[in-house]
Amino acid sequence: MSTLFSAFDLPSPKGPLTLANRVVIAPMCQYSAKNGNATDWHLMHWGNLLNSGAAMMTIEATAVSAEGRITPDCLGLWDETTEQALASQLKKARALAPHTLVCIQLGHAGRKASSAVPWLGGKLLTPESGGWQTLAPSAVPHNPNEHAPVALDAAGLEKVKSDFVAAALRAQNMGIEAIELHGAHGYLLHQFLSPLSNHRTDAYGGSLEARMRFPLEVFKAVRQVYQGVLGIRISATDWSPDGLTGEESAEFAVRLKDIGANFIHVSTGGVDHAQKITLTPGYQVPFAKQVKDKSGLPTTAVGLITNAQQAEDIVARGDADLIALARAVLFNPRWVWSAAAELGGHVQSSRQYWRCLPREAAHIFESSTNAQR
């Protein structure tokens, strides 16, 4: 029997959330919002991914404040208007594919905010060109040639924390089953964790204990109000000398588990513009295993996992509990269907698609009696 297509329970204060298989869709920025509001692009995008066969889809990095957006075109969840737009489009998409669970990634870009969209270069935008003043643990720019962020003071830290809490409550109000806080890829919570971006001399900087303090405070504040599955995505290593290490990230995971984390999604890099990464298939999986072994948290692996047997082997070995698909599923939205056909698994799909399968793959759909008629 395929491990990849076996069920898995994520714990939560409301009780276990059962995933039909071990495949989840990773959050992938679409840069298609209007003033933070979800658009028809998101309806199409989510509807497609909700029919991918994955057990759960994660909505892209969603800013908890306007200044926390990566770009002016990023999705947001910071007021009634952005909540209504997201809820409306998500409700329509989920009505067409109610069998797939939904997670949302909530984040703040910190010093990497106020950037142009990738197809326009991705550079930091000045206020004169549609950008805004960025915020960070320390007044250290991501790129030495960029304008420096403003270091968050005590009031700023409290605002960020309250913004995360408010966004989590909005997500809870619309029935989203899981939240993933964004603590990876060089964004704000990662900036606090990494000694490369956190040069503070107060209680929030210096030792690992101090650098963990603010991300743990944010997580704990969200945990106190959100009753669903709550996890976090981290960058386990900065791929840079003197940066965050896998050992430190594993210790961070232990602390997260102590305050009620239900899962951890392990990525790498993003905080140092000079990082050196050797890309190989599954190159981040060893970090997922390191975090899983140290913390015991349900762990998601991601990154250059592109074929079914590779994904199967990762979960069968116990290197991770879940596999997150990102660019691979944008290229092939039916990746999970193909994997089920190859590995002898089953997936759920909207009935309109039941008749589309070739005969050698006809077994993969659940509840699809007479699918070939």
**How many domains is the backbone divided into?**
1
Broad structural category: alpha/beta
What is the top-level CATH class?
A: Alpha Beta
Average pLDDT level: 95
* SS summary, helix count: 10
Could you tell me the radius of gyration in angstroms?
A: 20 Å
DSSP strand count: 12
* CATH architectural group: Alpha-Beta Barrel
**What is the percentage of strand-forming residues?**
5-15%
Question: Could you give the order of strands across the largest sheet?
Answer: 3-4-5-8-9-10-11-12
Give the full name of the CATH homologous superfamily.
Aldolase class I
Order of helices and strands: EEEHEHEEEHEHHEHEHEHEHH
What layout of secondary structure does this protein have?
Blueprint: E1 8-10, E2 17-19, E3 23-25, H1 40-50, E4 56-63, H2 80-96, E5 101-107, E6 135-136, E7 150-151, H3 154-173, E8 178-183, H4 188-193, H5 208-225, E9 229-235, H6 246-258, E10 263-267, H7 285-295, E11 299-302, H8 308-317, E12 322-325, H9 327-331, H10 335-343
Parallel strand pairs: 3-4, 3-12, 4-5, 5-8, 6-7, 8-9, 9-10, 10-11, 11-12
Antiparallel strand pairs: 1-2
